[in-house]
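ARCHIVE CARD
CATEGORY: sequence design from structure
SOURCE FIELD: tokenized fold
FIELD CONTENT:
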């Protein structure tokens, strides 16, 4: 497609440098599709890009259009595209694996060391724009019109949550969910939908903890006003939960979890701490406990689990707290900086 569009661009290295720019509409290759973006969600990664966090410094070469959580309508397809058609409603995986390295060939594309990321270092641009070009392979087609664009834009972060929940085998188990921010909030919904018997949310923010109850959590634990190890034991006949899924990256949250997990319990790390975390491995190992790291979404098994949960009627409407026009992206990031939001949606 010819013409120009508006997009949010990281214009230079360093802190800040995020601007709305008039840009050429991205071109598509034979295996790509052009998506007209209807909704995009702001992620912590976008804040890292704004703040020029080391994660972003390592991966980005400005100028680059940002945004990797979005939904939209397919308006153009490449000559070789077979599984997506013009008019399809899509969301998208954000990772583009190389498909040729040993990790990819072993079936582990979600941890491919050569991954490119939409809205970070992908030449087709990002989702904070009117249009984005993506490979057919990463499109998630979901043509059910009862699914609002705003919720369809959440599939990428919802996917990392679903990956963590499915890897934790929560059915009929007692599950601790650490953190009730956007990921933990979706974690409560996904754990319940996947058959968790009891969900116990550990969250110091009173409003976020209360909102978890409305999403189906059975108990909330305040880890600041109470001792989470003691309360968790009290809630579980003294033995502890089967699984703790960390959506907070909080070191005190992880430290408590390795102590309150029951023998043969599993700690699943979905949001990873930004600093090293030390704990008593000997005690943990003598309990037979395990730790599982979660990176991205399994490509593409997790996407089929997402489809199943959506078809089962999971309701993500409560995850969206703000909707703004694209131009107000900085205002949206401000709500997130201050912990005043759940997910913030931008409309190009
Ligand atoms: Zn994200
Ligand atoms: Zn690879």
């Amino acid at each position: 497609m010819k013409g120009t569009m508006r997009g949010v661009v990281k214009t230079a290295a360093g802190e800040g440098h995020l601007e709305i720019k008039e840009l050429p509409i991205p071109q598509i290759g034979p295996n790509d599709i052009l998506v007209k973006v209807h909704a995009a969600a702001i992620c912590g990664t976008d804040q890292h890009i704004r703040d020029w966090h080391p994660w972003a410094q390592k991966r980005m070469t400005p100028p680059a259009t940002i945004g990797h959580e979005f939904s939209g309508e397919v308006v153009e397809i490449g000559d070789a595209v077979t599984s997506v058609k013009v008019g399809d409603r899509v969301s998208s995986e954000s990772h583009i694996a190389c498909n040729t390295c040993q990790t990819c060939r072993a079936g582990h594309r979600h941890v491919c060391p050569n991954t490119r990321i939409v809205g970070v270092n992908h030449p087709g641009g990002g989702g904070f724009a009117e249009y984005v070009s993506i490979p057919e392979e990463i499109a998630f087609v979901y043509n059910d019109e009862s699914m609002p664009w705003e919720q369809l834009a959440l599939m990428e972060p919802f996917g990392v949550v679903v990956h963590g929940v499915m890897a934790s085998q929560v059915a009929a188990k007692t599950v601790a969910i650490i953190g009730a921010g956007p990921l933990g909030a979706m974690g409560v919904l996904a754990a319940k939908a996947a058959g968790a018997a009891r969900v116990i949310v550990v969250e110091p923010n009173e409003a976020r903890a209360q909102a978890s109850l409305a999403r189906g959590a059975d108990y909330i634990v305040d880890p600041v006003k109470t001792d989470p190890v003691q309360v968790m034991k009290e809630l579980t006949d003294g033995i502890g939960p089967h699984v703790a899924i960390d959506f907070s990256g909080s070191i005190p949250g992880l430290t408590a979890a390795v102590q309150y997990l029951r023998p043969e319990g599993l700690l699943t790390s979905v949001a990873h701490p930004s600093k090293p975390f030390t704990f008593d491995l000997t005690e943990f190992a003598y309990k037979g406990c395990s730790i599982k790291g979660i990176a991205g979404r399994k490509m593409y098994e997790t996407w089929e689990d997402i489809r199943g949960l959506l078809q089962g009627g999971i309701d993500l409407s409560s995850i969206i707290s703000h909707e703004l026009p694209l131009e107000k992206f900085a205002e949206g990031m401000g709500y997130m900086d201050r912990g005043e939001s759940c997910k913030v949606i931008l409309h190009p």
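CARD ANNOTATION: The CA atoms of residues 175 and 199 lie 5 Å apart. The first strand starts at residue 4 and ends at 10.
SHELF: design records, drawer C
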